[in-house]
Design a protein that fits this description.
3 helices, 97 residues, 3-stranded parallel sheet
């Protein structure tokens, strides 16, 4: 059985896009060629053959202004891929739904 890989997204990893995608890459075990953008995230989640859980435990208002809209897009990408791939799960605890 494949072990669950989990990313818990908090404000500590959302200072900027580079930091956020680096964290997702490491936490979810994405391949080295991961493109560190929303399109690459969608691709990796769509291709996930092992269980992945992405938890958003963050209040959008606590994010830098330039990251607020980006995080909403990121949650939408994760939600879409969670619906399409049974190996992907999403939890939104507060503030981004």
């Amino acid at each position: 059985m494949n072990e669950l890989r989990e990313a818990i997204v908090t404000s500590a990893v959302c200072k900027n896009r580079h930091m956020l995608h680096g964290y997702l890459h490491d936490a979810l075990g994405f391949p080295d060629y991961y493109g560190h953008n929303l399109s690459a995230l969608a691709d990796c989640l769509a291709e996930a053959g092992t269980p992945l859980l992405v938890t958003f435990a963050i209040d959008a208002e606590s994010l830098p202004t330039d990251m607020q809209a980006y995080m909403l897009k990121l949650v939408q990408v994760c939600a879409r891929e969670a619906l399409a791939n049974e190996n992907v799960s999403l939890i939104v605890e507060h503030g981004l739904s």
